Recover the amino acids of this structure.
């Protein structure tokens, strides 16, 4: 059955944990859906893990649409959330609604996600009122990496924690149906989770959140540029892939690949006429 905003609300009410992963392509999305994931985020983290950029700032609407719709084509039961890229919603409410609409129409998303608290509540409200479900994102918000002074844990001081709680309440009031909490102390994430009626989805925010999300390359051991503390490796596929690539190189060099069974035949008579 399709996971919807109603599913998310029901899961929070029943105390059932919500599982999310990022995804950026059709083949991987099929595997995530087969594994029973509730929702996929086509994150602007694709800037890092797919495009090799140092941050998410250069990711475009076109990038999000291209990767987003390849994921959407694979998803039947899984909810597909597509990130709004940097500068696609900050400038004005009107631009935010138009770009959220493009992610739905062209990207075939079921919901969009954007970063920020009180400052983007007018956008959250207007997008939601256009019939587009919104996931908010607080704590470490990578699009603000330059303002935050790096990718570091957020909400440790009393002042910062109070601001986070206020922002969380504001985005709920503005109409967001879920909230991503990234890189904040676990007890603060727990407190926010208790205060909100909408589900919190944590990444580096402890087990007290209503759900969890990880970047799939991080959890599969496919990305080695850096490893955040919260990125548990559920497999070491990077190592396996490297070994498979090396085995291929060796077999090509040795002439042992392709073998008979990978090879197309031709009628001898036809062939003889060609010589
Ligand atoms: O872009 C992304 O992958 C994200 C998650 C880390 C929440 O925003
Ligand atoms: Na993101």
């Amino acid at each position: 059955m399709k996971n919807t905003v109603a599913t998310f609300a029901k899961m929070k009410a029943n105390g059932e944990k919500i599982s999310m992963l990022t995804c950026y392509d059709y083949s991987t999305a099929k595997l995530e859906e087969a594994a029973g994931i509730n929702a996929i985020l086509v994150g602007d983290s694709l800037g890092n893990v797919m495009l090799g950029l140092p941050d998410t700032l250069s990711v475009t609407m076109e990038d999000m649409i291209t990767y987003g719709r390849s994921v959407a084509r694979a998803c039947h039961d899984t909810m597909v959330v597509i990130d709004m890229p940097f500068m696609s919603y900050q400038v004005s409410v009107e631009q935010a609604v138009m770009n959220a609409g493009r992610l739905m129409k062209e990207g075939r998303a079921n919901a969009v996600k954007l970063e920020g608290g009180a400052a983007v509540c007018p956008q959250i409200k207007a997008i939601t009122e256009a019939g587009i479900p919104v996931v908010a994102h607080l704590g470490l918000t990578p699009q603000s990496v330059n303002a935050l002074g790096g990718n570091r844990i957020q909400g440790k001081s009393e002042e910062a924690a109070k601001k986070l709680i206020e922002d969380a309440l504001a985005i709920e009031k503005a109409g967001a149906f879920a909230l991503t909490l990234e890189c904040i102390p676990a007890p603060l994430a727990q407190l926010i989770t208790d205060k909100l009626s909408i589900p919190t989805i944590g990444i580096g925010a402890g087990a007290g959140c209503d759900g969890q999300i990880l970047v799939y390359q991080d959890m599969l051991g496919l990305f080695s540029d850096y490893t955040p503390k919260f990125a548990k490796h559920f497999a070491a596929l990077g190592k396996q892939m490297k070994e498979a690539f090396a085995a291929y190189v060796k077999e090509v060099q040795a002439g042992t690949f392709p073998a008979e069974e990978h090879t197309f035949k031709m009628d001898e008579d036809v062939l003889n006429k060609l010589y």
User: Anything to note?
Assistant: The mean pLDDT is 97.
